[in-house]
Amino acid sequence: MTVEKIATPIVDVESMSRNAGRFVEEFGRAAAAYAKPFEAGKPDAGMADGVVEVVRTLGTVAERWFADPQKATEAQTLIGGQFLALWGSTLQRMQGETVTPVVLPDPRDKRFAAPEWSSNPMFDFLKQGYLITTRWAEILVDEAEGIDDHTRAKARFYVRQLASALSPSNFVLTNPELIRDTLRENGANLVRGMAMLAEDVEAGRGELRLRQTDPGRFEIGVNMASTPGEVIFRNDLIELIQYAPQTETVLKRPLLIVPPWINKFYILDLNKDKSFINWAVQQGLTVFVISWVNPDERHAGKDFESYMREGIFAALDTIEAATGERKVTAAGYCVGGTLLGVSLAYMAATGDDRIESATFLTTQVDFTHAGDLKVFVDEQQIQAVEASMQAKGYLDGSKMANAFNMLRPNDLIWPYVVNNYLKGKAPLPFDLLYWNSDATRMPAANHSFYLRNCYLENRLSRGEMRLGTVRLDLSQVTIPVFNLATREDHIAPALSVFEGCRSFGGPVDYVLAGSGHIAGVVNPPAKPKYQYWTGGPAQGDLADWIKAATEHPGSWWPYWFSWIEAQAPERVPAREPGGGALPSLAPAPGTYVRMKA
């Protein structure tokens, strides 16, 4: 058998040597940018804490296997047998025989799409050896005896990060595509890549700010967050935007949207084709949206109660002043929905009936089955986060952005590392990833309360959470609830949202959309990519609910609007922002959304 070789371009030695020198220069620039915080005496203590946590967790798993000689032998036999089979099949291929691979990658795994990963025995060996090793590590975690569920979940997460990082597709000398590109360009790709790496470390002030899109192609208020409206209220925490009507009449009852403060609100107003806000206005809703401030050290003491009073309650007061309407319908997205649920429980306890119905979009109020972010939450890790926040008064937005990226490293981290820094190609423009990288900070008091009361102690669903002297009980919330989950959500899993429905005391319409935490929500009727399921209340088991549910093609947005309209169908003449009572403070999308982390 002839071993397939990589097509080798003619190398220009002179160009290669010049590029090698330029590469070293750019590497020095990147190293200097990375070292700058250390020189200033400001190293990131969180990095050391993270390494300690990884070693402690994986060490616990290893201890369970190797403390028992029999278990250690089982572990070694498991991987040894597969590597013997791989060596044997590789030798057979070298002798011209056709053999069945010992292990195959997932068909959806794009890392090994190049034909050389299968046709060239050397690269095929690297690929299969990597897959054998990483799957062996996953088995060790899954089958380790005597470790608790949280430690096992953390170990799975850390193994996934290490496996993603150590893939042979991530290194020039072990990736046939990168070898071919580097030879063809005489190393110019690596020079461009190292220049981008230096820029991204400088932009992150000593930390890598991974670019996932071309930021120069997007501008807030121009081709993103461009639905017409006005800021009619501003305080330390929020700007309240009222959008200009696009219909002659509107539903009498206004809509207040409470977005998450861990991201910018314009995920719901990405562009004219993907804007939930613009679509809602076009249906005849008077739409108000909270735009949260990007907090700094001045906001360190702003806690959950502050976000309720200066956020939701301030917005309700402003809506009444602008429209004359005391009662509204409210919608909360992600952690904005959690805040809405907390506020509704507080309002029920204090006799405040200004919100007549609530919509929750991929929102958790019961954190028993919380998503992958729960691996970051235990007493030791929270104490480390709190210590970091105490020094600054806030959590850097990059920390949360990195955490979200780490949930899907093979999609959101390493493809961009390879494309940007090894292939030397700028990423393509992608509005969703531009929004994803537009990170916000989180005030120390608010974030600590959220981590402890929701993720760590799950107090809200148990009726144990308190704001001030008021105990919160979601069973006292009896207004109609529309509760949207998405089927592939790793942040607010469908099961978690389903179980959370039982916490409310009134009627709950549980709806399940296709795709994940973002794409399942931002699924416009004009260009729908996914379907949705309806089946009424969240009763029994989720699997049984899905079996009995009705699948609908297209977007869930029209179904939601019919739910809103059926509750309060009365219409009135369209309202202009401010209603003549409140002046415009700025055109939408306002000033807070433009504040960078």
TrEMBL record:
Domain AB hydrolase-1: 284-522
Domain Poly-beta-hydroxybutyrate polymerase N-terminal: 108-280
Pfam families recorded: Abhydrolase_1 (PF00561), PhaC_N (PF07167)
Residues spanning the membrane: none
Alphabetized UniProt keyword annotations: Acyltransferase, Cytoplasm, Transferase
Subcellular localization(s) per the UniProt record: Cytoplasm
UniProt superkingdom: Bacteria
The name this protein goes by in its record: Poly(3-hydroxyalkanoate) polymerase subunit PhaC
